[in-house]
Amino acid sequence: MSKYLLRRTLGAMVVMWAVATLVFFMLRAVPGDPFTAMVFDTGDPTAAEEMRRAFGFDQPVYVQYFKYLVQAVQGNLGTSIYGSRVPVATIIAESFPRTLSITVLAFLIAVTIAIPAGLISALYKYSALDHGVTIVAFLGLSMPDFWLAILLIIAFAAGLGWLPAIGYAPLSEGFGAWLSHLIMPAIAIGTPFAAIIARMVRSSMLEVLRTEYVQVASSKGLLRWQVLLQHAFPNALIPVITVMGIALALLMAGAVVVENVFAIKGLGRVLIQGILNRDYPVVQGAILIVSGIFVLSNLIVDMLYAAIDPRIRYE
Amino acid sequence: MALLSVRGLELHFVTPAGRVRAVNGISYTVEAGELVAIVGESGSGKTVQAQAVLGLVAQPPGEIVGGAVEFDGVELLSLPEERMRTLRGRRISMVFQEPMTSLNPVLSIGRQLTEAMRLHLQLTRAVADERAVSLLGMVGIADPERRLRQYPHHLSGGMRQRVMIAIAIACDPLLIVADEPTTALDVTIQAQILALMQDLTRRLGVALVIITHDLGVVARYADRVNVMYAGRIVEHGAARDVYRRPAHPYTIGLLNSVPRLDRPRGVRIEPIPGSPPDPAHLQPGCAFAPRCPYVVDRCRREEPPTVTFDDRHVATCWQTAALRPESG
Ligand SMILES: Nc1ncnc2c1ncn2[C@@H]1O[C@H](COP(=O)(O)OP(=O)(O)O)[C@@H](O)[C@H]1O
Ligand SMILES: [Mg+2]
User: Which residue of A has its CA nearest to B84?
Assistant: First the structure.
């Protein structure tokens, strides 16, 4: 097991190195650099030259690359090239919890709604209830997240005035404040995710209910809930977890989009601003963190497999 | 009074393609402690009639059109599901055909072996675990403590079927219905499992219904045999009588299609030509007529009569009298 974890960690580092390298060179493949634009107004070409030197951009690209790698491994992601030159690590430490909050909340809401909905759909196959869940799921799937976000703001912020339309409150200001700012973005991105999970739970459960071991469980005279929840459900969950892992990428991407609608300064906004400003260190750092999250969530999915399915053992 | 008595059971399935007449009025009995076989080709309705007896047929698409099932003095077909559930796994248990798929892959052997005991007999975990160990010993599994902690994928097919048998006897049932319990196993293991089931049920005094398509195998173990074809029982009698002196052309065909030691030299193994009728499109008259070497005109027109001879040997056929001239 520990050997397996070691191998997975090495794999993760290779993936993150590849991502870092790709981003590093792609950013520099675009002609020009940020400094020319920055000092364009002043009309002073020496100022740009000076800044280039200060950030080490005057050196050959391969030197810059190795410097970047060495620093990144030491946890130093550099500083923003703008304003007061805030360290990238600080920017990420500030913005990332917001994005993570939205993603995790969306995940929790989606899963708590989707799993029961999918189960009910499967158990009352072709009933009015099942059709209802199906219709809602398809609506949820076909609604773009930013559009849903706007609808939510119109209804619950502008209309009813129950929730703040925009902004963010950290947990330190209280759970209520935190939740009231995040619930709408979380629902906006969690809805299509919930729709996918509900459909997946339904089809997977229907498949498991046809298996012989579920018949055997019934033939033992077990209570219906025992047959469904103890025998069928864990087996039905196995393919659902795969989809959850993949769909988590969807959630992160969604968070990046709706942060802009709700004016929450999360990783998504940082990234977009960084790209617009060609703030190389910021873009590099933000993408590195996102890739790290993906690698980590993949690892968690694989661990979950092993926890549910005794046939899976890692060594 | 018989432990199990099935009378005129009729079971249909309503499908988009039409009404499938899977079981067409079968009657048989099982006495306490007795070993009864139900034999027939695939599709003759053996499995679904057993599921009907245990109340495991989903309705719809299933539909019990008629008949009665009496078990231990209780009429089962009209029994409320909650009471039926307390009989299942407790008084009647079932062993399924596919040991590779009848155990839940994510639950431990111990869990699957003890859950019915804990529910029906209200045993504590410790007592149930203890009993599980002795049950695994009874079905011939070595190192039972370790096996209890293992999962199905650690066990071979033969071992899994032994576990299924242990599960079936766990709550001291009166009747076990085993649906082709050895069909999926190697030939050498088949004999071991059948001998184990025969021995255990005899020792514990449990009645056993073995469903199979192999008349040869079953005649060695069963007390009585019911031969099933197209949802009907076409021949019934003591296993020895049916095996030595089959009275229905279908039974004769079945016996000719399996190797047997007492076969006269020169008689070849011959499968029955053709295939069983589609239960969605049953023709009038005898369902076996299209494949029967002894067929006469009236077989295709009229339902065959049920002929009793040699005391308790029964066949449903127009030609039985001609095939067995000495019987009356
Ligand atoms: N759920 C079902 N819906 C429609 N037909 C069914 C269903 N279950 C069984 N049948 C039909 O009933 C007949 C008997 O099946 P079965 O009892 O499995 O045969 P056996 O066990 O003798 O091989 C078959 O023709 C089968 O197609
Ligand atoms: Mg069958």
Answer: A221
Q: Separation of B46 CA from ligand 1 center, angstroms?
A: 8
Q: Do A222 and B94 touch (CB under 8 A)?
A: no
Give the C-alpha distances (Å, rounded to integers) separating B254 from A21, A62, A111, B22, B183: 73, 82, 56, 20, 16
* Confidence (pLDDT) at B328: 43
Q: Each residue of A184-239: pLDDT tens digit? A: 999 999 998 899 999 999 999 999 999 999 999 999 999 999 999 999 999 999 99
State CA B178 to chain mean position distance.
6
* Domain range for A143: 88-308
- Is residue A41 situated within a structural domain? no
Q: Does residue A134 fall inside a structural domain?
A: yes
Among chain B residues, the shortest Cα distance to A212 is held by B102
Q: Is residue A237 part of a domain?
A: yes
Is residue A55 in a domain? no
Contact (Cβ atoms closer than 8 angstroms) between residue B39 and residue B225: yes
Instruction: State how many domains chain A has.
Output: 1
Distance CA B226, CA B236 (A): 5
pLDDT for position B208? 96
- By C-alpha distance, which of B160, B79, B107, B151 is closest to A227? B107
Cross-chain CB nearest to A311 (options B105, B116, B120): B105
Give me the CATH number covering residue A225.
Answer: 1.10.3720.10
For residue A257, how many other CB atoms are within 10 A of its CB? 17
The model's pLDDT over B303-313, given as tens digits with 9 standing for 90+, comes to: 898 888 877 89
Model-level pTM? 0.84
Q: Quote the ipTM score.
A: 0.87
